[in-house]
Amino acid sequence: MRAGEPHTIDTLRRLPVPDGMTTPMGCDAVAVPARLGPLVLPRLPRVGCVYADEAHWWWLVPSDSDYAMEWPAPARYTTGALLPDAPAAVPGLIHRPAGTLPYTPPIPLYLALCRLTDTKPTWSRAAA
Q1: Is 93 helix (H, G, I), strand (E, B) or coil?
Q2: Which residues of the chain have pLDDT under 50?
Q3: How would you classify the pairing of strands 56-61 and 50-52?
Q4: How far apart, in whole angstroms, are the C-alpha atoms of residue 62 and residue 56?
Q5: Which three-class secondary structure state does DSSP give residue 3?
């Protein structure tokens, strides 16, 4: 792919859902720089699947977990748990929860990231 060309499914990688787990609510992901990952974990009441490499940590969240809120920079929300510009290897799974659901609850994750980035939570109301 050349600079400036749009991403295609062939140039994107998807975080895999571990065998035996299901995604009845769909699956998106939230990525943060690796330096923030260890600071987020102890702030969460429940942790779903977490993937990591040297640059980023990713949390699986239910689809549409970006609805009515803006994730604080430098976090990056990706629909479909797609990893644009990912290296050839998919990041490694560093945490797998008990049970069959891979999700980290998005609201506690969002609030933890807001606190760590000194960002005021931004909530918006859906249009009527």
Answers
A1: strand
A2: 1-10
A3: antiparallel
A4: 19
A5: coil
What percent of the chain is modeled with pLDDT above 70?
84
All residues at 6 or more sequence positions from 6 whose CB lies less than 8 Å from its CB, including other chains: none
Question: Count of alpha carbons within 13 Å of 5, Cβ hemisphere only?
Answer: 10
β pairing state of 50-52 and 92-95: antiparallel
pTM for this prediction: 0.85
Residue 79: the pLDDT is 95
- As a whole number of angstroms, the distance between CA 80 and CA 46 comes to 21
Beta-strand runs (E) in the chain = 13-14, 28-33, 50-52, 56-61, 76-78, 82-83, 92-95
Q: Angle CA(27)–CA(29)–CA(35) in degrees, nearest 5? A: 155
